[in-house]
């Protein structure tokens, strides 16, 4: 029997090996009834803001900047902060969950944030239809990047794959992604308590 060894790209491994966490996020979002009213939506926006702060803290790694040279077009914490202002909320916490996250794990966290811009297309429509929000008021953090969601996403995946990480380093990126999902999951599980 001929054994064929399939070597997956990092982007493919990330998708496959974190898909159970993605499913869990969808379930948590459903449970939180994010679009049922503005209060729930505002708490979800707080979660987005805190998560984006965690992720953007990782942009400071020089190695991250080398692999992902277009970091300046990414990240949505300022958009989320403006949305919170629209919604009359001022974040009370300055805690950053990624102070001890190193490289290349940092790339896994950024993967979670960048990938979430795809699902955000659906969330953006809900925010518009159910709550009357827009890219100019309250739902900036869910709006597409000016260049378009898919284009910016594909460029991100390509950059990860072009880095040619060893299997061991790929494992670390995947662990970072699992940790990122875990952090967002904790925020979603505790939406009511976020201030
Ligand atoms: C109701 C909530 C959500 C929906 C409906 C949703 C939906 C989607 C969809 C449609 C895609 C594109 C799949 C594809 O083209 O292959 C996607 C990708 C992705 N989403 Fe979500 N999503 C949700 C929540 C989240 C959350 C909360 C996160 C992270 C915090 C997240 C992270 C990701 C990631 C990382 C990808 C990229 C997967 C890949 O590697 O291709 N999603 N999502």
What are the main properties of this structure?
Heme Oxygenase, Chain A, binds protoporphyrin IX containing FE, globular, mainly alpha, 7 helices, 195 residues
Description of the structure:
With 195 residues, this protein is an all-alpha fold. The chain has one domain (17-193): Up-down Bundle (Heme Oxygenase, Chain A). It contains 7 helices and no strands. α1 (10-32) runs parallel beside α7 and α5 packs antiparallel against α6. The longest helix has 27 residues, at 105-131. The chain is globular, with a radius of gyration of 17 Å. The mean pLDDT is 96. The site of protoporphyrin IX containing FE has 14 residues, from α1 and α5.
CATH superfamily: Heme oxygenase-like
Bound molecules: protoporphyrin IX containing FE
Q: State which percent range the strand residues make up.
A: under 5%
Cα end-to-end separation = 60 Å
Looking at the overall shape, the CATH architecture is Up-down Bundle
Structural class: mainly alpha
- CATH topology (level 3) name: Heme Oxygenase, Chain A
Region (Disordered): 1-21
Biased composition (Polar residues): 1-13
GO molecular function: heme oxygenase (decyclizing) activity
Protein name: Heme oxygenase
């Amino acid at each position: 029997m001929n054994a064929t060894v399939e070597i997956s790209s990092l982007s493919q491994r990330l998708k496959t090996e974190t898909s159970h966490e993605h499913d869990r996020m969808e379930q948590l979002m459903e449970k939180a009834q994010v679009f049922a009213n503005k209060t729930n939506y505002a708490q979800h926006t707080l979660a987005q803001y805190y998560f984006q702060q965690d992720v953007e803290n990782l942009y400071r790694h020089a190695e991250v900047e080398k692999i992902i040279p277009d970091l300046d077009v990414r990240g949505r914490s300022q958009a989320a902060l403006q949305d919170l202002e629209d919604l009359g909320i001022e974040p009370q916490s300055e805690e950053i969950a990624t102070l001890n996250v190193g490289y290349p794990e940092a790339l896994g966290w950024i993967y979670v944030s960048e990938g979430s811009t795809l699902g955000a297309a659906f969330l953006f429509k809900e925010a518009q239809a159910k709550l009357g929000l827009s890219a100019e008021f309250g739902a900036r953090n869910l709006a597409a990047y000016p260049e378009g969601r898919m284009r910016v996403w594909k460029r991100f995946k390509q950059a990860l794959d072009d880095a040619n990480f060893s299997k061991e380093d790929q494992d670390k990126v995947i662990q970072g992604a699992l940790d990122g999902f875990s952090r967002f999951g904790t925020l979603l599980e505790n939406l009511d308590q976020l201030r």
